[in-house]
Design goal:
Largest sheet: 9 strands, mixed
Strand order of the largest sheet: 2-1-3-4-9-8-7-5-6
CATH topology of the largest domain: Rossmann fold
Bound molecules: adenosine-5'-triphosphate, xanthosine-5'-monophosphate, glutamine, magnesium ion
Number of strands: 19
Radius of gyration: 26 Å
Structural class: alpha/beta
Helix content: 25-40%
CATH superfamily of the largest domain: HUPs
Strand content: 15-25%
CATH architecture of the largest domain: 3-Layer(aba) Sandwich
Low-confidence stretches: none
Shape: globular
CATH class of the largest domain: Alpha Beta
Length: 542
């Protein structure tokens, strides 16, 4: 009998803290902090029906959120959460939610926004409630971000911390393990935040901090085998980026050559990229990889298109056309071989931030860019060919994926590689894409990245590249007038790619790069360095 593959999910194998999300921008950081302590944590919307939970959390955190508990239409937890009899920690809105549930008059709008640093005086009560702030001393700096506040202490609760502005900055139930804090322990600006989350999860909830990537890999391989069975074929789009490579390596471990990887050369890849991916995935990792050379097709469809979203759509739909063809080809070729079977699964390298994005209790946010390179693939192929999605990394953050990559023996240079967008150089050329322009941007990018590596700066930068402005500028090269393109260098530092700071190079280094590009890449008249942080800029040029 085949076991239920869900039995292998981390929340059934590791003590898990459930984070109920009220829409805070920093809910995911609560998970990051807990996981970095070795405590597995999962996020669900605050409106989750407790009766529908298929697993029992060791404890629950209510996140912060942009709403006000007393407003009509504001989100509230299922009251059944209090009957689970597991410890609860409310953060900011989450704390206000605990107080409001007891009496709606407990929470009101404050006189002023309290945003930024505050000092919490810890009150010792000499009972179980002291456990939350154990080991922190008498006063700790924290980060606040709120307008509403507790104006009355909820019945049955005691104060465990106070600031000048918030008398009830920390509260705890006299008997039950229910705690609330007005400040944000998940932020770096709350230096003792990790200690508080450890006190809560390990000491109060009793969660074993045993979340290890090693165990995850084994569990996931078992789960994949059970899901896919012993006949079906799995198709995977791989780019040579970290996510798809780690996903592919896991699939290969799980089902060997029944996993078929496809790399599409869309004509907008980095210098020598396809050859390198072929070598790493095909030769070193032993993955059955086909490189589809579609450069002409993509560049043809992109000719004359300047709108960035149109470029993305054209590239996305061309990817789909090719994957459909490949699925048919793979099935045909597998016929009459020991691996004959239907392509039933499509591998995607979805990460947890994407999952959180879709689960999270947030209002509609503006679409700045459509990032999904293979977007639409699921719907069309799922309905047409009955494909199902398999997403082995959907519970992981990027640094966890990198850790698995190392464990699977993927080379450090690939594991630490800067991300590269699916549409590639096409969205790094401001304006319409031609073969000549791609080639110029590609050469310039290779020079910039090589010099960054030689200077030992690569791992300090989160993402760097050279793009091209199709406007041309006049230059003088050896007494000759040159009318050439402008190369835009970009390098940023960021943790989550949602916001980013410009990397501070030495001017002398930038001057050296500029000289090298002007000298070595024909068609370039000028090199500039982009000084825009994100926001207001985005990381890619388009
Ligand atoms: N040239 C390509 N050929 C085939 N699939 C691709 C290609 N480019 C992107 N993809 C698919 O799109 C997915 C999303 O791309 P994305 O850049 O977000 O991830 P990645 O390339 O795996 O990792 P990284 O973020 O490190 O670049 C990839 O995981 C891969 O499945
Ligand atoms: O696979 C992708 N397809 C896309 O269309 C795309 N656009 C941006 N990016 C990557 O996303 C991160 C944030 O980029 P932006 O600040 O430009 O939105 C950066 O890491 C970008 O490289 C993309 N990745
Ligand atoms: N960060 C938060 O959770 C804010 C909660 C609530 N909206 C307030 O202003 O107090
Ligand atoms: Mg990529």
């Amino acid at each position: 009998m085949v076991a239920n593959p869900d039995s292998e999910l981390p929340h059934n194998n590791f003590d898990t803290i459930l984070v109920l999300d009220f829409g805070s921008q920093t809910s995911h950081l609560i998970l990051r902090r807990l996981r970095s302590l070795g405590v597995f944590a999962e996020l669900l919307p605050c409106t989750t029906k407790i009766a529908e939970l298929t697993w029992k959390p060791k404890g629950i955190v209510f996140s912060g959120g942009p709403s006000s508990v007393y407003d009509e239409g504001s989100p509230h937890v299922d009251p059944a959460v209090f009957d689970l009899n597991v410890p609860i920690l409310g953060i900011c809105y989450g704390c206000q939610e605990i107080a409001w549930r007891i009496d709606s008059k407990n929470v009101a709008r404050g006189k002023a926004r309290e945003y930024g640093h505050a000092d919490v005086k810890i009150t010792k009560v000499n009972s179980h409630v002291d456990r939350l702030f154990a080991g922190l001393g008498e006063e700790v700096p924290v980060f606040m971000s709120h307008f509403d506040k507790l104006v009355t202490l909820p019945t049955g609760f005691v104060v465990i911390g106070a600031t000048k502005n918030s008398e009830f900055a920390g509260i705890a139930h006299e008997e039950k393990p229910i705690f609330g804090v007005q400040f944000h322990p998940e932020l770096e600006h709350t230096p003792c935040g990790t200690d508080i989350l450890r006190n809560f999860s390990v000491e109060i909830c009793g969660a074993q901090p045993s979340w290890k990537m090693g165990d995850f890999v084994q569990l996931e391989i078992t789960r994949i085998r059970e899901l896919v069975g012993d006949k079906a074929l799995v198709l995977g789009a791989v780019s040579g980026g970290v996510d798809s490579t780690v996903g592919a390596a896991l699939m290969k471990e799980a089902i060997g050559n029944r996993f078929k990887a496809i790399l599409v050369d869309n004509g907008c890849m980095r210098l020598n990229e396809c050859e390198q991916v072929k070598e790493t995935l095909g030769e070193h990792l032993g993955i059955d990889l086909t490189v589809v050379d579609a450069a002409e097709l993509f560049l043809g469809r992109l000719a004359g298109v300047t709108d960035p979203e149109k470029k993305r759509k054209i590239i996305g739909s061309t990817f789909i056309d090719l994957f459909e063809q490949e699925a048919i080809r793979i099935e045909k070729e597998a016929e009459n071989t020991p691996n004959s079977g239907k392509v039933e699964w499509f591998l995607q390298g979805t990460l947890y931030p994407d999952v959180i994005e879709s689960l999270s209790f947030r209002g509609p946010s503006a679409t700045i860019k459509t990032h999904h390179n293979v977007g639409g693939l699921p719907e069309r192929m799922m309905n047409g060919q009955g494909l199902r999605l398999i997403e082995p990394l959907r519970l992981l953050f990027k640094d966890e994926v990198r850790a698995i990559g190392r464990q699977l023996g993927i080379h450090e240079s690939l594991v630490n590689r800067h991300p590269f967008p699916g549409p590639g150089i096409a969205i790094r050329i401001l304006g319409d894409v031609t073969k000549e322009r791609v080639e110029i941007a590609r050469q310039a990018d290779n020079i910039f990245i090589t010099m960054i590596k030689e200077a030992g700066l690569y791992d300090q930068i989160s993402q760097a590249f050279a793009g091209l402005d199709t406007n041309r500028s006049v230059g003088v090269f050896g007494d000759q007038r040159v009318w050439g393109y402008i190369i835009i260098l970009r390098a940023v530092q960021t943790k989550d790619f949602m916001s980013a700071e410009v990397f501070n190079f030495d001017n002398a280094f930038l001057a050296k790069v500029s000289r090298a590009i002007c000298n070595q890449v024909e068609g370039v008249a000028r090199v500039v360095y982009d000084l825009t942080s994100k926001p207001p800029g985005t990381i890619e040029l388009e």
